[in-house]
């Protein structure tokens, strides 16, 4: 606080000021930390980092991709889309309202390939899963996967099939997703024979089948059962995604979430896309 002296004849009066002048903001925010770059499907990178700290407030962040600024955002996190396959390196700096900017973080790189996996489930090795034992012959499970933002070829299906020992024959059907419970136009169908395994994903190779999806399309993958009970397809231990997990019974398809099931079917598709 400042004081002012006022001289009135022989009387000296000290008058206190009402406040200090605002101090100029010259301090930059801290360098953003915890930068993580994760390839997504198809043609996308998810870039996340921890919030920076400033003596006033952080106003936003500048994001570099391969040393070129691509975005300025107000909060941590960026989805970088429409990318071709390749290696991408990201760095982030924070700035405040006064224009002070931190140094850029050390770059973090990730490769975006032309082959990727479409999935709803979060299954990883040793995670908790539930094998659905209530199926009878003639029933089935299905998933909606995608959409793909680039034209893609479906080259495989992966699934977790177990809960009991044995070998079972199923029918695998791929179709365009209609956005409804019933699948759209059929793309491919084949009988498959699976040997049960509780902790190993099984792969059905479709490389030679020329199954294609146009940009913007979603895929429906359905499994039809010719036996009752276990072994069967697994559900992961997470929350179920409504409108993406399906169950066929009684002559029709229904949303598994509306039937009270929890967890996503561990059924995935492997695609090649041209970026």
Structure overview:
The chain contains no helices and 23 strands. The protein has strands at residues 3-8, 11-16, 36-40, 44-48, 58-65, 68-73, 78-80, 86-96, 108-112, 115-118, 129-131, 140-145, 152-159, 161-162, 167-176, 186-195, 202-205, 211-213, 219-225, 232-236, 245-249, 252-255, 267-273. The strands form six sheets. A six-stranded antiparallel sheet has the order 16-15-19-12-21-22, with no helix packed on it.
Keywords, separated by commas or semicolons:
five-stranded antiparallel β-sheet, 0% helix, elongated, six-stranded antiparallel β-sheet, 275 residues, mainly beta
Radius of gyration: 28 Å
Strand tally: 23
End-to-end Cα distance, whole Å, is 63 Å
Structural class: mainly beta
Q: Based on the structure, what is the oligomeric state of the protein chains?
A: single chain
Question: How can the largest sheet be summarized?
Answer: 6 strands, antiparallel
Describe the structure concisely.
The chain is mostly beta strands. The chain has strands at residues 3-8, 11-16, 36-40, 44-48, 58-65, 68-73, 78-80, 86-96, 108-112, 115-118, 129-131, 140-145, 152-159, 161-162, 167-176, 186-195, 202-205, 211-213, 219-225, 232-236, 245-249, 252-255, 267-273.
